[in-house]
Amino acid sequence: MSVRTTPGVRLLPNAITVLAMCAGLSAIQFALNDQLAAAVAAVAAAALLDGLDGRLARLLDATTRMGAELDSLSDAMSFGVAPALTLYAWQLQDNRVGWVVALIYAVCMVLRLARFNTLLDDTEQPPYAKEFFVGVPAPAAGLLVLVPLMITAHLGREGWWSEPAVIMLWMALVGGLAVSRVPTLSLKTAKVPPQLVAPLLVLVVVAAGGIAVFPVISLVIVLLVYLLHIPYAVYRHHWLANHPEAWSAPPRERRAMRRRSQRRLGLRPPLRRRVAGAARRVRLPRRGQPDGPRRSWRRLELRRNRDEQAPR
After folding, report:
1. pTM for the whole thing?
2. For the segment 207-255, what is each residue's pLDDT rounded down to a tens digit?
3. What is residue 122's predicted lDDT score, i.e. its pLDDT?
4. 163 vs 43, 91, 159, 175, 244, CA distance in Å?
5. Rounded distance between C-alpha atoms, residue 87 and residue 149, angstroms
6. Which of 45, 42, 46 has the alpha carbon at shortest distance from 28?
7. SS3 (DSSP) at 133
8. Among 56, 154, 228, 293, who pairs with 216 as Cys (CB 3.0-4.6 Å)?
9. What is the distance between the alpha carbons of residues 57 and 4, in angstroms, rounded to a whole number?
């Protein structure tokens, strides 16, 4: 019997999913004990395990309907319920509106996951749709909403970022991004050009070193960079939607198409730097000699000035 059909091995992805759910829920207990860094680490561990279980299931050919449902439930608990209750237990307990905002964020995450599951069965999507997520993914949203807690854990003190009003506004913003239809890039289908492989590996090493030395603030920087990529993702999604000929083209041809389209839309640069003086260099024919030597506007202007200054 092959390893792929071994029952114990087939249960391994589901076991990782359960561990991810336990890690996410443990963040609530850490927040109640004022262990902020541990709460962030618990949600980050849940995000890491969530990225492993699906890939491991496909590698072992152990994808099942039960595993898909369990994964959705784990994501809802780890990145919806757990961050909402963590922030509520941290700063929003004495605020009546805080519980409402926590509920709104959790419901947004559940709705985002429900829509994600329905899009998996949609066969009418264009080919380029697999390169994007609809809205911010659940693991990224679960970490983004904890940014105020991360800053407090790194600095060891509270500030304006830890005010209840700021936290509630941030939770509403992240929940809105998660449930919105704003496209974000999917790393599963991202293709890196060969000339960018080495610089990207260097950046990965820098990020790994930063997370090892300054884990919390490095994670905040990575999350903010992730937010900054959203305008580019919106532009790329819009460009692909308007260029069907690029849907099946390789990345190099797509980049060439984008450059050509940008040149067509851009303004033609002037032929000379000094546009104001260009008109004076236009040659005019001599009076009565259409085919003879030509004179410029500048010479005609100088001659006119001499004629005006001459004594009469």
Report:
1. 0.75
2. 888 877 888 888 899 899 999 989 988 988 888 888 777 767 666 677 7
3. 66
4. 22, 8, 7, 18, 47
5. 8
6. 42
7. strand
8. 154
9. 10
Q: Which helix (DSSP H) or strand (DSSP E) does residue 235 occupy? A: helix 230-242
Burial (0-12, 13-18, 19+ Cβ within 10 Å), 143 = buried
- Tokens 């040659």 — which residue? 283
Contact 272, 283 (CB under 8 A): no
Q: Which amino acid is at 201?
A: L
Q: What are phi and psi of 145, to 5 degrees?
A: -70, -20
Q: Which helix (H) or strand (E) holds 218?
A: helix 215-228
CA 135/CA 298 separation, integer angstroms: 62
Please report, as a single letter, which amino acid is at residue 188: K
Q: Are 56 and 40 in contact (CB under 8 A)?
A: no
The residue with tokens 């749709």 is 129
One-letter amino acid for residue 263 of the chain: R
| Total Cβ atoms within 10 A of residue 43 | 27
For residues 22-32, give the mean pLDDT.
Answer: 90
Residue pLDDT, tens place only, 151-179: 998 888 888 999 999 999 999 999 999 99
DSSP reduced 3-state for 293:
strand
Rounded Cα distance between 64 and 120, Å, is 14
The tokens describing 168, both together, are 């509630």
DSSP 3-state of 292: strand
Ramachandran category for residue 60: left, alpha or beta (phi over 0 → left; psi -120 to 50 → alpha): alpha
